[in-house]
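Appendix C reproduces, verbatim, an entry submitted by the partner laboratory led by Prof. M.T., so that reviewers can inspect both the input and the predicted structure.
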Amino acid sequence: MDHNVNAPLRDDVRLLGDLLGECLRQQAGDAMYETVEKIRQASVATRTGGGESLASLRDLLSPLDDATLLEVARAFSQFLNLSNIAEQHHRERLHRQHQRYPGDAGTDQGLQDVLQRLADNQIAQPQISGTLEDLSVELVLTAHPTEVTRRTLIRKYDQMADLLSELDRSDLNDDERELRRERLRRVILAAWCTDEIRREKPTPVDEAKWGFATIEQSLWQAVPDVLRRLEAQLAEQGLPAPPADWAPVRLASWMGGDRDGNPNVTAPVTREVLLLARWMAADLYLRDVENLLADLSMKAASDELLAATGPTHEPYRVLLRDVRSRLRLTRRQMEAQVEGLPVPEGDAYLRREELMAPLQMLDRSLRAVGLSDIADGDLKNTLRRLNCFGITLLRLDIRQESTRHSEVLDAITRYLQLGSYNDWDEAARQAFLVDELQARRPLIDAAFRDSEHCTPEVAEVLATCEVIAEQGSEGLGAYVISMATTPSDVMAVMLLQKIAGVREPMRVVPLFETLDDLDGAEQTMSALLALPFYRERVAAGQEVMIGYSDSAKDAGFLGAAWAQYRAQEKLTALFAENAIPLTLFHGRGGSISRGGSPTRMALLSQPPGSVAGRIRV
C-alpha cells in the first residue's frame, strides 16, 4: 500500500483533533485541555515505551477526581468517534478512487468486479440477467437495548462526514475552505455539548422513529443512487438494463413489532407504528412530488396523459397537483388516526399501485415524446423508491414467543370444553389445527372475550392479530415465532390469523435459535411439508429464521456456528427436494456473540445453495 494513500486520513484526524481541542479549551478551560493533552502524549508513549511509560500514565490518572476523569473520558470518547468518522470517510474516498483501504485487503469492489469475473469465465448474459432480476435482499432494521448512540448525535456525525467531503473539493478557495472548517468546528462543539446518555428509556415508538430517521437521512437517497450505479455497471459490461420495477433490496423492521419479552410492545403500539410509517412515507413522497412539479414544466405529452388531464399547457404539473393533493390527504388521515382525532374524508393512497399509476403515466408520456433523458432523472428515482419502500416505508415484522400462542389456543379449547390444548401431545395438536384451518365456521364467538378464559395476555395476542387484519398486508412482513420447536407452533399462528379475519395472512416464520431447535429444524419443517394443505400454502416460498444469540450461549461461538451450518445445509436440501424456494433469515447482530462479522465473509461461509439469490438479514 502506497504510504501517501493514507495521508488524507491523517490530515482529517489531525484537523478533527485540533477542532475538538479548541472546543475543549473553550468549554472546559485550558487546565482541562492540558490534562487531556498530557494523557494523550503519555498514552502514545506507552505504545513504544513499555512498563515505564505505563507507570507514567498511571501517575497522571491516579490523582484525578471523578468529575475530571469523566471529562477526560468524554474527550477521548469524542476523539475516537471523530477518528471513526474520518476513517469511514477515507474508505469512501478510496472507494471512489478504486483503491483499497489496508484493512479491506482481499475484498471485492462490488458488482463491477463480479461482472468482470463472470465475463472472464464466459458465463452467458441471459444467466447473469436472470440471476440479477430474481435477486432478493431484505434488510431488517432493529433496535437493540445495547444501542446507545442518540439519534441527535448520529445526525451531527453525518453532518461532520458531509463537511469532510466538501473539504476534499479542489475548487474551494481559502475563504470557502475556512467557512467549512468553521462550520465543522460548530458541529463538533454542538456534539461536545450534547449529553451522550439517554436520560429516558426509549419507547418502542421512539425506536421506530429512529428507523424512519435512518431512511429519511440516508436510505431514501442511497437506494436510487445504488441502483443507478448498478445499472451503469451493467451497461459497461454490455448487459441489458434491469426491468423498470427492479427492486433487489427491500426494507423491513422489528421496531414496534418485536414483542418477544418486551411487554411495552402492544397491539396499540404496533398500530401506531404502522400509521406513523405511512405518514412518513407520504411526507417523503410529497417532497419528491414538489421537486417534480418544479422540473416537469414541459408541454409535449402523450395522448394518454392529455386524455387524463384535458387540454393544458402543463399536463405533467396538472397530474402531479392531483398526486400532491392525495398525498397531503394521506398524511392528514394518518396523523388523525395516530392522534385519535376525526379522520378527514377523501381518497387517500392505500396501496402502492395507486401512487405508482400516475407516475408511470408521466414516465410513459416523457418517453413517448422523446424526453427519455428527463424520465431517467428524478422521476426514475421516485419510481425506484416506490418499488423499494412502497407507501408504507417498510414492512413491519411481528415477533412473539411460541408459548404465548399455545396459551391462547389452550384458553379457546377450554372455553369450548374440548379439553386443554397444552395437555395434548403434538399429534393431537396438529390434528386440531389442521381441522380448524380448513374449516369454514368461526372457532370462537364474541362471548369468548368476556369469559374468564380470555386473560389480558390472551386478549393481547388476539388484539395483535386484529391489527394485522385491520392494517392489511402491504405494511407487514413476517410473523416470526421465537422458540419454535414443533410443527404445531407454526400452524398455531396461522390459525390465530384466521380467527382474527386476516384476509392476506402474514407469512409465518419459525425462528430456530437454541442448539436443540437448530438440530430439530429439519424434522420440524419436514413434518409441515408432509401436510398437503401446508405445502400448498408455501408453494411460492418458505422463510426460516436462524438465530445466533441463544445458540452461542448454549454451545459457544464455534459450536453454534457449526450447528447453524448443519441446520441450513439440511433445510436447503429439504426444500430443494420439495422444489419450494427457501429464504433464510439470519438474525445476525453487530457483536460476535450475535453473529456479527463482515457481511461478505458471512455470505461466503454459508452452505452451498443456501443463499441462491434470496437472503434476509
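The radius of gyration is 28 Å. Additional entries are available on request from the coordinating office.
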